[in-house]
Structure formats: structure tokens, C-alpha cells
């Protein structure tokens, strides 16, 4: 008896299925904010005070504009207007354009975007960093 591959990949999205919302303090948006893994349903269900947005690969479309737009659409459906802070780990053209084009909607939805200009230097390496104060 021959069996097919146990770990065959499906072309379907692995995004969060519908269900009741979860409230968290800090969420790292998975897979460098790739649109194949994060959609409007993710932001409807995974409600956080802080979202960390990774990704600085424009060729791979990371972070994805669709993911950033999904945050706006998902947050608009929350039953409260709690403050949300978006923390990009890298400065990117996608993030700058999205910020400028949707700034008014961000304000309406009580979303604040932090600048991503902090750098940590340790011995022979340096890397971007964000400080979160609660």
C-alpha cells in the first residue's frame, strides 16, 4: 500500500479561522507580515495593544500592504476604540506610503505608528530595535 506525502502543502491560506476575539498585550505579526498568513480575520480575532511588524524585503513584498490594510479593516470592526500601537522593525517604502496614505483613517481608528529609527550596537554587530513602555 502506497501512501501520499504526509506533509503535503495546501494552497489554502493558514490565516486565523473565524471565532471569538482574543485580547493580547503584544503580538508579533507572523511570517514577516506576509499576506498569505495574515488577513482581516486575523485582526478581527487577534486584538492587541501593540503589533510588531517585521519585514524589509520589498522583493518579497514584506511587509505586505494588504496586511497593513487588513489591520485597518479588522480594527474598524472592533466593538471598542482602544489604542493600538504599530511597531515596524524596519523603515520601508511600503510602510511609509501606507502611513501617509492612511494617516487620517489611522487617527480615526486610534492607531499610532512608532518610528523605527532605533539601533542597538553590541560589540561587532548592530540591529534595529524598538522600546516599548507600558
Automatic annotation (TrEMBL):
One of its GO terms (cellular component) is microtubule associated complex. It comes from the Eukaryota. GO terms for biological process: axonogenesis; dendrite development; microtubule cytoskeleton organization; regulation of microtubule depolymerization. GO terms for molecular function: actin binding; microtubule binding. InterPro entries: MAP1. PANTHER family: MICROTUBULE-ASSOCIATED PROTEIN, MICROTUBULE-ASSOCIATED PROTEIN 1B. This is MAP1B protein. It comes from Edolisoma coerulescens. The lineage of its organism: Eukaryota, Metazoa, Chordata, Craniata, Vertebrata. The gene is Map1b_0.
Amino acid at each position: 500500500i502506497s501512501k501520499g506525502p504526509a506533509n503535503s502543502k495546501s494552497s489554502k491560506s493558514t490565516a486565523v479561522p473565524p471565532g471569538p476575539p482574543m485580547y493580547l498585550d503584544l503580538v508579533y505579526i507572523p511570517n514577516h507580515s506576509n499576506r498569505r498568513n495574515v488577513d482581516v480575520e486575523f485582526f478581527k480575532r487577534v486584538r492587541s495593544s501593540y503589533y510588531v511588524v517585521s519585514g524589509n524585503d520589498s522583493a518579497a513584498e514584506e511587509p505586505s500592504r494588504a496586511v497593513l490594510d487588513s489591520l485597518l479593516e479588522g480594527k474598524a470592526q472592533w466593538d471598542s476604540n482602544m489604542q493600538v500601537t504599530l511597531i515596524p522593525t524596519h523603515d520601508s517604502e511600503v510602510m511609509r506610503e501606507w502611513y501617509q496614505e492612511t494617516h487620517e483613517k489611522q487617527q480615526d481608528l486610534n492607531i499610532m505608528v512608532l518610528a523605527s529609527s532605533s539601533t542597538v550596537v553590541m560589540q561587532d554587530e548592530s540591529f534595529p530595535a524598538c522600546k516599548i513602555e507600558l
